[in-house]
Write a structure and sequence with these properties.
- By secondary structure, the chain is mainly α.
- The protein has 2 domains: 17-146, no CATH class; 150-223, Alpha Horseshoe (Serine Threonine Protein Phosphatase 5, Tetratricopeptide repeat), CATH 1.25.40.
- The protein has 9 helices and no strands.
- α6 (152-159) runs antiparallel to α7 (170-183) and α8 runs antiparallel to α9.
Length: 232
């Protein structure tokens, strides 16, 4: 009996399916063991990844607690535990490591070890593994400690790129640059810089107050005008 086109098409689909099943069976017979091994290995790797995620989170929480304790001690005027602080300077998290290095250098400076503090800050400045804001603040602190031993132009060259309105460390860097200008007899540059610092709302109030006084001494009015009531 001849097959109709419809029956022929159905027959071919059945043959194709049978061939596929036979191929799958052959593949399983040949490689089934290795497929199982691969699946188990994949599950093991996924389990390892989950463990690593948990371990990393737990480790980060532990480091965070240690960093909080160190900062609390340092900001309170105390001396952080040396071993704990040293361990934090080797933390895998760049932010914690940088903060610990700043505390370490600051502690050395507070103890009177200016040379050691300068070296620590200098190492941070040269450490490309740290984010730029940390390196910048280290440069400012290093320069502040070296201020009297540096030529005014060296200070300007170091910090002028940071002494720009809107920059994160404008107040601290700008103040040092302005003083360097004064030492160079360039009051025409120092005055406007002090005035800019005094009027920048993002600069800490203590620095703004000093800058306002210095600008006034140099003949520049840095007192902010009260807001127009019509604009309130």
């Amino acid at each position: 009996m001849a097959l109709t086109p419809q029956n022929s098409e159905a027959f071919m689909r059945e043959v194709d399916e049978a061939v596929r099943q036979d191929q799958l069976l052959t593949v399983w017979q040949r490689y089934g063991r290795w497929i199982l091994v691969a699946v188990v290995a994949g599950l093991a790797a996924f389990g390892g990844w989950l463990y690593w995620q948990h371990h990393s989170k737990t480790e980060a929480e532990a480091v965070s607690e240690q960093m909080d304790a160190v900062l609390a001690t340092a900001t309170g005027g105390g001396t952080p535990d040396a071993k704990q602080l040293d361990a934090l300077t080797k933390a895998s998290q760049p932010g914690y490591r940088a903060s610990a290095l700043l505390v370490q250098a600051g502690t050395a400076s507070r103890k009177g070890d200016t040379k050691g503090a300068i070296a620590l800050y200098g190492a941070m400045v040269a450490d490309t593994g740290l984010d730029q804001p940390y390196r910048d603040v280290a440069l400012i602190r290093q320069t502040a400690l070296e201020f009297d031993s540096l030529k005014p132009q060296q200070i300007v060259d170091r910090l002028k790129p940071l002494a720009v309105e809107g920059a994160p460390w404008f107040g601290s860097a700008g103040e040092l640059v302005a003083i360097a200008y004064m030492k160079m007899g360039k009051n025409d540059l120092a005055g406007p810089l002090f005035a800019g610092i005094a009027k920048d709302a993002n600069v800490p109030q203590s620095i703004r107050s000093r800058a306002r006084q210095m600008a006034g001494l140099l003949g520049i009015d840095a007192v902010e005008s009260p807001a127009d009531p019509a604009q309130g």
